């Protein structure tokens, strides 16, 4: 449907800041600081995804992550954020629109992580 490309550089400061925000312990592997498993949701802030420019707030529905290897400080990732599905449903508080997204990241040309996230818009859509 729609997709945007992102280049993401993971540095120790951003990993530490995110880990502190979610009260996650800092972990290292081979001396490299490991990003918390949910950190890729912050990559969206770097995108100009036109479908995310909505007048109403979004509710987080669900998410799923699949890793081939941990994300560590110093990595430069090439990512693609895609809107894969839009569903309209009726809810108790009004109409709902469910936006399903896929985030796929590679490191050194190899797949390293994918995530699927559903965001929900409530009200006039």
| Amino-to-carboxy terminus distance | 18 Å
Please tell me how large the radius of gyration is. 16 Å
Placed side by side, the strands forming the largest sheet appear as: 1-5-6-7-4
What's the overall geometry?
elongated
Main beta-sheet strand count, sense and barrel state: 5 strands, antiparallel
Q: Work out the helix count.
A: 1
Nearest-integer average pLDDT: 92
User: How many strand segments?
Assistant: 7
Note the beta-strand portion: over 45%
The top level CATH class name: Alpha Beta
Quick one: CATH superfamily? Hotdog Thioesterase
Number of domains: 1
Helical proportion?
under 10%
Order of helices and strands: EHEEEEEE
The CATH architecture can be given as: Roll
Fold-level CATH name = Thiol Ester Dehydrase, Chain A
**Spans of at least 5 consecutive residues with low confidence:** none
Secondary-structure-based class equals: mainly beta
Protein name: FAS1-like dehydratase domain-containing protein
Domain FAS1-like dehydratase: 32-114
Pfam families: FAS1_DH_region
Organism: Paenibacillus albus
């Amino acid at each position: 449907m729609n997709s945007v490309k992102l280049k993401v550089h993971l540095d120790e400061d951003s990993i530490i800041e995110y880990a502190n925000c979610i009260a996650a312990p800092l972990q290292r592997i081979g001396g490299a600081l490991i990003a918390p498993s949910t950190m890729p949701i912050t990559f969206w802030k770097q995108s100009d995804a036109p479908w995310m420019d909505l007048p109403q707030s979004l509710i987080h529905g669900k998410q799923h992550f699949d890793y081939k290897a941990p994300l560590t400080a110093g990595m430069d990732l090439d990512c693609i954020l895609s809107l894969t599905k839009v569903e309209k449903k009726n809810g108790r508080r009004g109409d709902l629109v469910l936006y399903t997204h896929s985030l796929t990241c590679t490191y050194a040309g190899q797949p390293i992580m994918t995530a699927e996230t559903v965001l929900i818009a409530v009200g006039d859509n």
